[in-house]
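Long-time lurker, first post. I've been practising inverse folding by hand and with some scripts of my own, and I keep getting stuck on stretches where the structure tokens seem ambiguous. Below is the full token string for one chain I'm working on. Before anyone asks, I'm not after the true native sequence, just a reasonable design that respects the backbone. If someone could post their per-position residues I'd love to compare against what I wrote down in my notebook.
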């Protein structure tokens, strides 16, 4: 279905009247209760093959006067469980549509952080509605990595049930910033596909995760030295300004470049696309 038809479909399906999606240039934006919403995509790189394998999608929000609003503030404005469910699905639909708009050059998976309040607000069948949304966009649960905070581990039985619902539907799962002094066994038992860290970690603990078949992701890679250190520490995936900041356009993946994420190699020399 063409992008414009999808936007019309989702707008027509929205009976609340709280939001409107529209096409601005080549990207989809939305108005929601006085906020202008958009998508930002930051590339995720396979550190060993040096190629982009996916993007982390985050919310861009502004007030009518273009004052930026943090995503946490935007979510905090939801005053009921129903409002939170609606807003979270709106944001994830926006990300899916904006990925679809770039599918001719941007491939790989989409990684999305899930607000724990959303998991508790939805009574059952987690992932069912979003699966239908993805299908409309030509995507599937296998194209999505849902990221959860490790602080949610074991905190509520309803969270565990929600996570299992997602897993059964084929979504891939990631955990963010586990506390390695206490969470190692819980992380391995959770069986995520990916664990994401914000900084260097104990290599023996990382080895335990790798032995369990868990891919290790490091964010905040800003320099060539960071890149080299991450590879030496056996991280599999990476994000950071070295590979590209979060922006409305994803970085191309359909490229013959040896280093697909940057026009410069780590040594600062231009890569030959035809090499």
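-- Answer (accepted) --
I ran through it position by position. Result:
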């Amino acid at each position: 279905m063409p992008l414009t038809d999808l936007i019309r479909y989702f707008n027509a399906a929205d009976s609340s009247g709280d939001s409107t999606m529209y096409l601005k240039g080549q990207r989809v934006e939305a108005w929601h209760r006085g906020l202008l919403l958009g998508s930002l995509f930051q590339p995720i790189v396979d550190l060993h093959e040096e190629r982009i394998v996916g993007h982390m999608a985050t919310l861009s929000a502004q007030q009518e006067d273009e004052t930026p609003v943090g995503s946490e503030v935007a979510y905090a404005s939801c005053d009921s469980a129903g409002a939170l469910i609606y807003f979270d699905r709106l944001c994830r639909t926006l990300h899916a549509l904006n990925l679809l708009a770039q599918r001719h050059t941007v491939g790989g998976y989409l990684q999305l952080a899930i607000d724990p309040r959303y998991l508790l607000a939805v009574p059952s069948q987690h992932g069912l509605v979003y699966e239908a949304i993805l299908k409309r966009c030509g995507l599937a649960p296998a194209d999505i990595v849902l990221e959860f905070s490790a602080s949610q581990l074991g905190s509520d039985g309803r969270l565990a049930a929600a996570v299992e619902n997602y897993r059964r539907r084929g979504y891939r799962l990631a955990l963010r910033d586990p506390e390695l002094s206490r969470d190692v066994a819980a992380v391995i038992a959770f069986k995520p596909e990916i664990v994401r860290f914000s900084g260097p970690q104990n290599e023996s603990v990382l080895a335990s995760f790798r032995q369990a078949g868990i891919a290790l992701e490091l964010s905040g890679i800003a320099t060539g030295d960071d890149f080299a250190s991450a590879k030496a520490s056996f991280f599999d995936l990476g994000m950071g300004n070295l590979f590209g900041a979060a922006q409305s356009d994803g970085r191309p993946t359909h490229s013959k470049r040896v280093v697909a994420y940057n026009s410069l190699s780590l040594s600062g020399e231009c890569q030959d696309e035809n090499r």
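A couple of notes from the structure itself: The radius of gyration is 19 Å. Confidence is low (pLDDT under 50) at residues 256-275. Happy to go over any region you disagree with.
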